Amino acid sequence: MRQKPSAICIYSELNSLLTRLPSLNEDLQKNNSNNNKKTLKFAIRYHVDFFNLQMAVVTRNTEREVKTLDESLKDMAVDMRIFSLTLRSLYVQYAVGTNEQPAREFRKLRDDTRNDAMVYLKCILPVSTKFVSSISEYFEYYEALNYEEWCEMLPDILQETTGYKELCGTVLQMHEDILVPLKKRKDQALLLVTKFKDLQEEYERKKRELEQGAENKRKWAFGLFFVPYVGPIAGALLGASADSDMAKAVAEGQQAKIQETASMAVSEALIPALENFINGIKKAAGFFSVMEQELMKFESKASNAVHDPKKLHYMVMKKEAKDMKSTCQIFYAVLPDVRTDFLAIPTEGTDQNYVDKWLEKQEKTIREKCSVPGLVGRLLEAITK
After folding, report:
1. Which of 371, 130, 165 is nearest to 288 (CA)?
2. What angle do CA 176, 264, 258 make, to 5 degrees?
3. CA triplet 119, 120, 125: central angle to 5 degrees?
4. How many CB atoms are located within 10 Å of the residue 108 CB?
5. Residue 155 CB: number of other CB atoms within 10 A?
6. CA distances from 64 to 70, 146, 165, 184, 262 (A)
7. How far apart (Å, rounded) are the C-alpha atoms in residues 112 and 260?
8. Angle at 112 between CA 107 and CA 115, to 5 degrees
9. Which of 102, 251, 310, 319 is 20 to 30 A (C-alpha) from 236?
10. pLDDT per position as a tens digit, 322-337
């Protein structure tokens, strides 16, 4: 059964509340008449109910912020893997090898996108890894420290929280920057999809002709099989030719599908995955912003009351810490695969000047976004390894 707070605790909390109600406080301080005692009793009952309601709001708000962050991180892990897999697939499953103009245009689009992939691998992925670490480290304070230790470290934790918020802002800016050229490529890919659809109609026509030719050759091969001396040779030759035509028919049809799918991969998978990831970063930045505001309020208040908002915040966060750290581990588990996807992309032909310019730009972003001591150095070290 939940223990009720003592009268001393209630009165202690009421003092802070009554200071925000000057007129009522003035009446209560006049004397100890019966009327004033009744007023005090009513005030205590009213404000205890009000205070409990406020504490419930604090608890719900904190739980909601943590839940939003938890769900966002889980989605972000999936979105990042889809993003890296789609880039990798452009060089494997959807490799476009024909010489038609749309295919040549797509290879150019794909190779330009490879430059962006190298930027992501060298400049953005290391900072994104730090971003996931920051969330895990933040909840470590609540899991590893008891309440008294947490209170003592509150100024340091507040500074770290500000740093995590700035880190989120940095990661967000980096992703929004890389999204700009990728969106241009999305527009190009959508145009190519239309061209590939036209090509596919042509391929389908060729396929039907080849299938018909293969069928006819099968019949000829069957008939010639009974002609002395000619039959075995002609049958074998025409049969092989028929097999070749059927193989070409399948290849032509598959090529049309592959080319269209390749363009759709850029427009329908690559960009949406990155956009969803960016939305997740925004939510994480919002979480740290709210936590920063909360901790700033708590830093100036010293109270050991049972229902102190600061203690309620600590208890809620401690309860959620284990699950949040598990979610971070899920994200960590994806990162090696993401890195492998990027490393699997051929680097031959990469425009190194393009990558170097982006590196300079990201270094500038880090210096502009981060003010917490030590954070700039850690991030610059991550992207220059």
Report:
1. 165
2. 140
3. 135
4. 11
5. 11
6. 10, 23, 18, 36, 40
7. 18
8. 135
9. 251
10. 899 999 999 999 999 9
Rounded to whole angstroms, how far apart are CA atoms 341 and 41? 68
Report the sign of the C-alpha dihedral through residues 314, 315, 320, 321, in that order.
positive
**Level-2 CATH architecture, domain 7-383:** Up-down Bundle (1.20)
**Predicted confidence (pLDDT) per residue in 246-291, tens digit:** 555 555 556 656 666 766 777 778 888 889 999 999 999 999 999 9
Question: Rounded to an integer, what distance in angstroms lies between the CA atom of residue 57 and that of residue 309?
Answer: 10
**In the chain, which residue ranges form alpha helices assigned H by DSSP?**
7-18, 22-28, 34-89, 101-119, 125-144, 147-152, 154-224, 230-264, 271-299, 309-343, 352-369, 375-383
Residue labelled with tokens 């989605």: 75
- Please report which confidence band the pLDDT of residue 184 belongs to, taking 50, 70 and 90 as the band edges: confident
CA-closest candidate to residue 117, choices 378, 349, 365:
349
Longest CA pairwise span in the chain (Å): 131
Cα–Cα separations (whole angstroms), residue 370 to 78, 135, 292, 296, 377: 28, 17, 15, 19, 10
**CA pair distance 232, 277, nearest whole angstrom:** 63
Find out whether 311 and 13 touch, Cβ atoms under 8 Å.
no
Helices 309-343/271-299 angle, 10° precision:
150
* Residues 97/184, Cβ–Cβ less than 8 Å: no
| pLDDT tens figures, 343-373 | 988 888 888 898 899 989 999 999 998 988 8
- pLDDT tens, position by position, 49-65: 544 555 565 577 788 88
